[in-house]
Amino acid sequence: xTVQIDLAGRTALVTGSTQGIGAAITAALARAGARVAVNGxxxxxxxxxxxxxxxxxxxAEVVEVDADVSTDDGTARVLDLLPSVDxxxxxxxxxxxxxxxxxxxxxxxxxxxxNVLAGVRLTRAYLPGMMERGWGRxxxxxxxxxxxxxxxxxxxxxxxxxxLGVSRGFAKAAAGTGVTVNSVLAGPTHTGGVEDFVAELxxxxxxxxxxxxxxxxxxxxxxxxxxxxxxxxxANMVTYLASPLASATTGAAVRVDxxxxxxxxx
Length: 266
Prior knowledge:
Low-confidence stretches: none
CATH superfamily of the largest domain: NAD(P)-binding Rossmann-like Domain
Largest sheet: 7 strands, parallel
């Protein structure tokens, strides 16, 4: 018996999808047959990512959406280029270590604008159409940091905690309509940005495999996987939640964290 996910005829927007987890999600959704919109802040970065995606998934239908969705103007541009979607994956996010007592008000505001309000604005724009059509999927890429607030970046953790409440609230707004809204708690994941983050915390003199092990030992010892998660592993869960197979999963915080969060319930 095989499980097949067919998203043919569906249009998906993945914010912040020119690299890392977002790029892996667009590739996974495209392989499942969805028409996918690649989003980034600049036309050049979006074009590069779209070209790479077309090479990775031959025949993929790709829409290029260059816009900064953390701003009102950028959101308006997205809606102009892509008036309707069936699947919205709010992946855009920023992170970085800063001592707790040194995080300024401006930095707190920036994290909430990018990590929280960008997704709220797009959900508010796209959710009514999904509800009218009787089908849709909204996802927020959260983090294990939403539950286990990291001491080195509490502003990031708190912004991800907010996403759990946001997704639960919008799921209630969409109750009974055939639309599901969920958040995905991604664990420590291997991306270019995380490689830089690891270098900041353990130094840049170690070979990558050794640096990764040292980072997990020092800063993420709770991980049962004991390695960084690959972006494709996050994308697999997102694709499942975007599919008809996940029709009974809504209002949930689904973990792809490598066992990092020490809990026996989601």
